[in-house]
Design goal:
By secondary structure, the protein is α/β, with parallel strands linked by helices. The chain has one domain: Alpha-Beta Barrel (TIM Barrel). It is built from 13 helices and 12 strands. α5 packs across α6, α6 packs parallel to α7 and α10 packs parallel to α11. The N and C termini lie far apart (56 Å).
């Protein structure tokens, strides 16, 4: 009788395994997907007006977590409670380097209290960029901050723009110099794929270059055409005095610009990334910031597999869905928007 029971259990186990992908390994491969967060800088005006309400709307759009860009006078304890109530993972925080240098212990304490795993250097001023008089000093500053973060159980990330792709005296890009001179246990990457591509590099190849060192990836799309006469940083208010109307460059929701988003997502998973973070510095296409990040999420839903059914164990296979159509210039069949040259749009 005991042998018969064991045999029956074995048969049932095989049937369950077959229902969700024939074998455990295959089912796991099909069902895994990277979680998606939102960099809250994208909706900063909404956050300033209604911090908790905006977090709730972000969750309702389908985002799994958030990356902070300021707390808008909310206490870390309150922010932690909001995220827990709403069901958002407090992944990381962009913190000005000046704030870290002024009081890194407070920065660490605040964001650790919220539950963040990562603290991010989001931007550096001109004197700390490659070729600037304080660039080498900045590298050492980041090494020190990274050590502090490590001791506290957090991980320091560096979020790039395009200016880190200026070359140093050694002939390598400033970004590569930084990662070569600060060890991986003290500094990981947060590659911003918009600025990687804008700098003339291949986002997919750059992710592969930092295989195993890219836990968080910034997904950002843009459109650019013709000669770049104006400063794209004027669009995000960083270079005062520059023209803010730039007809040749604009940030776009994912899938509405030049990025090959499916290829980046696929590569991020292959190199061991843990989070995909959507960011759009300024709204475009006549949409509000909230509408733009909602469009980005809709694009992501067409790229990532639906795995809820398999995770629940009912045996439904997990499948990627959506088809990437190339829409160049005028409106093409299967595209419901008119895009600029070089645009990829997910359908």
């Amino acid at each position: 009788m005991k042998k018969l029971s064991m045999l029956m259990m074995f048969v049932i186990t095989l049937m369950v395994m077959a229902a969700c992908g024939n074998a455990p390994k295959k089912a796991e491969t099909q069902c895994e997907r990277l979680p998606i967060g939102l960099q809250l800088y994208s909706v900063r005006d909404d956050m300033a007006k209604d911090f908790k309400g905006t977090l709730q709307k972000v969750k309702e759009m389908g985002y799994d977590g958030v990356e902070f860009a300021g707390l808008f006078d909310n206490s870390p304890a309150d922010v932690k409670a909001m995220c827990a109530e709403i069901g958002l993972n407090p992944i990381s925080a962009h913190v000005p380097l000046a704030d870290m240098l002024a009081d890194i212990d407070k920065v660490i304490a605040d964001y650790k209290a919220i539950g963040c795993e990562y603290i991010v250097v989001p931007y550096v001023t001109e004197e700390r960029r490659p070729g600037g008089e304080l660039f080498l000093q900045m590298v050492e500053e980041i090494r020190t901050i990274g050590q502090k973060c490590k001791e506290a159980g957090l991980t320091l990330l560096y979020h790039n723009h395009d200016f880190e792709f200026a070359k140093t005296e050694s002939g390598e890009f400033g970004l590569d110099y930084l990662y070569a001179n600060v060890p991986a246990d003290l500094l990981q990457t947060e590659l911003d794929q918009c600025w990687v591509k804008y700098a003339g590099q291949d986002p997919v190849e750059y992710l592969k270059k930092y295989d195993g060192r890219s836990p968080v990836v910034h997904l950002k799309d843009y459109y650019a055409s013709g000669e770049q006469k104006d400063d794209p940083y004027a669009l995000i208010g960083l270079n005062e005095g520059e023209k803010k109307e730039n007809k040749a460059f604009e940030f776009r929701p994912l899938g509405y610009g030049v990025q090959d988003v499916p290829a980046i997502v696929k590569t991020a998973k292959e190199v061991g990334s843990k989070w995909l973070i959507v960011e759009q510095d300024q709204p475009s296409m006549g949409k509000t910031p909230m509408e733009c990040v909602a469009l980005s999420m809709e694009t992501m839903k067409t790229i990532l597999p639906k795995c809820a059914s398999c995770e629940q164990g009912n045996g439904e296979a997990c499948k990627g869905h959506g088809e990437q159509k190339q829409c160049k210039g005028e409106k093409k069949e299967g595209c419901d928007h008119k895009h600029g040259e070089g645009c990829n749009h997910s359908h």
